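=== Structure Prediction Worksheet ===
Name of assembly: unnamed complex
Input type: mixed (protein and possibly other molecules)
Chain count: two
Listed entries:
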Amino acid sequence: MTETYVVGVGMHPFGRFPDKTVPQLARDAIWAAIEDAGVDPRWIDAAYVANCYNGFFTGQGDAIAPMVFGRAGLSGMPMIHVEGGGAAGSVAFHQAVLAVMSGEYRLALAVGVEKIYVPGNPAISISAIGTSGEQTTATRLGLTWIGDLTMSARRLMGRYGWTARDFATVAAKNRRHGVHNPESEIRQEMSVEEVLAARMVAPPLTRPMCAGAAVDGASAVLIADRETSARIGAGRHPRVAGMGVVGARYISNRVTDERPGMLSMDEAGRSFAKAYEKAGLGPEDVDLAQVHDSVAPEELLSYQVMGLCAPGEEAALLRSGATALGGRVPVNTDGGLIARGHPISASGVAQVVETTRQLRGSAGPRQVEYDGRAPRVGAIQNAGAQGGPAAGVAVSAAFLLQA
Amino acid sequence: MADVTDPIEDLVAEVPGSTRCVLAGSRCRRCKEVLFPAMRDCPVCLEPDVMEGYQLAGHGTISDYVVAERGPEGFPVPYVQAWLKLDDGPVVFSIIETPDPRSPEHLTLGSPATMVRRRFGADGSAFTGWKFVPDSLCHD
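=== Predicted Assembly ===
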């Protein structure tokens, strides 16, 4: 097993691009990553692309990998398509790292690309995203993603003392971070009061507390083994120090009456235990984190499952400013899903892009610094695709990158 | 054996001579786990073909709920989304029927509610599913 490094990153900005196709979005991110790495693209010997809804929108549900990589001009390597809802990008990254780690490949490309925005038809975007959960009786009888997440959030408010103001504080913080990210969907600040006063989606969640998913975008990273990494570029390349990728388990309804804490975070504790052990690191080593804030309460719970605080201390950690830029352990430094936008498959790879930029010290005005140095350890949390009797996520991912 | 993609019509039935409903679930012959929606293979003992049809009583308690101010097509807002713990074990999703969805009066966590058959969807794609009514609103 060889060590693996992130040697190149690239993005197509997240936002609304009705005139662009999936391959057009992807090629911008792919070539940005190749140029960032300063690598000969002929060296790429495996390519993975995450995409969830091209089949839904265009009928082309298979052969997405040759379409995406081929139209970017690449050929000769195996081209592999993966899915997994909000975690699809993490699946592509995980597979690319495993491919290189195994010694079978030396330089692998992982891409996440999604096109969801349809002018004048928000309902079809909601329908597309709905397919990332298994179509069960529940969805036919009126259950929605936001409804389900809000039910969990309401229960956890009672358990941990979270308030609607805390959710608004997360949203305002991430929007403030997004202002400094030119690739972010939303770049306007909003005060806590404005977030609280915005249109209600499902009490107590207002619209700005939820990530926009009618969004297009693409992200790409290049993974290399130690020898290839040493040949590429002059900068330091963050190492993939630990990974923990697991799936939800069915728990008998005779064992527990309790529904899970929050879909995206339920298995994150297991994921991080594995990643920390592999990396020989602990929560105290984490300098910054990118987490799955499709709704603001998920970010609060992420503090606990990553081990940044004890159960019940999430709101206190947030209120102290520790998780904002300038704080002890900034979370969602690029705006997170709430501001950067959530083009489903592109989100997971974008988390790796942001973490890499931060660890290299190349994140521009949102650069995290400790005593004048760039951060050393970045944590990433992501999860997605729901179904089966476990009624949990198919993929829960935790990654630790180390400079 | 029903699968999750089977028509909802086949899953809920009224008990003859009463307004009570039963739901078509399944039970493992080995470990006795009761599941809804019905399965063939048991996720607890991980044995194939061990589950048999099992009727679940349409009654349970409210585990979680939320007032949806936005919903998919065909679901006029506001409406109450909820997870209910059935008396037989499994947790099912349902809309809760109350006179005023925004009023929490009948929406108490842990309070009992009863399943009723209701029509869903528009002409052509209409089907019979279920909702739950808080027992505090039932008069029979």
